[in-house]
Fold:
Amino acid sequence: MPTARRRSSAANPESEWFGFLRVRPEDKTAKVQSVFASVAGNYDVMNDLMSGGLHRLWKDHLVRLMNPKAGQTILDVAGGTGDVALRCWKRSKGEAKIIVCDLNPAMLEQGKAKAIDLGILDTPKEPALQWLTGNAEELPLPSRSVDTYSIAFGLRNVTRIDKALAEAARVLKPGGRFFCMEFSPGVIAPLKPLYEQYCMHVLPLLGEHVANDRDAYQYLAESILRFPLQPELARRMERAGLHQCRWENLTGGIAVIHSGWKI
Structure:
């Protein structure tokens, strides 16, 4: 294995894993793209089914922590269907600048349609929300340009997590906040056996019968179980240049919000 490849793999251990399948890092992004192109149309419905509707409460809590305000620039990465961005728009009364960045155009189209359905329309001066096609590892934004960075249920699908964290630190202004909400394998002990069974057996079954794509949800279940535990992700955030990194477990650690500051 070439030296550069060894360094990349050591810094980004998940880059060679698509769920439980070992792949080349250069192939992983395309595989993830294929998954989300397939599930885009059913993504929100599946989120309700998979979490029993809890994802709505978790996202409400995330946005309360973010506390978007007039005049702020908020970047929501991997936020294609707009769940977090639209909550931020509502909480800021349409006065914050909100940018949604997602690698998958099909997911962004779902978000745009949802915004229109909610009556959130562009003005003659500027768009109500900006929708960007872009990779979390190479954000199409200037350094020190956003006040708040969020990524909800997206980081585990990034090929190189450490690179994405470094990009988050790059685009945040000094004093800016980082928020990541993810499903986690680090659930409390009493829930762990049941949770793992649910991930590996129920989620793929729901994917097969509702989204007509068992393989996509098999991958998504496996990606949850391969995601870093809470202390490890916090350490990686710090190595990427974020500070005062901490986390909050939701529903026994099924979902976790990590946060940090750019100083």
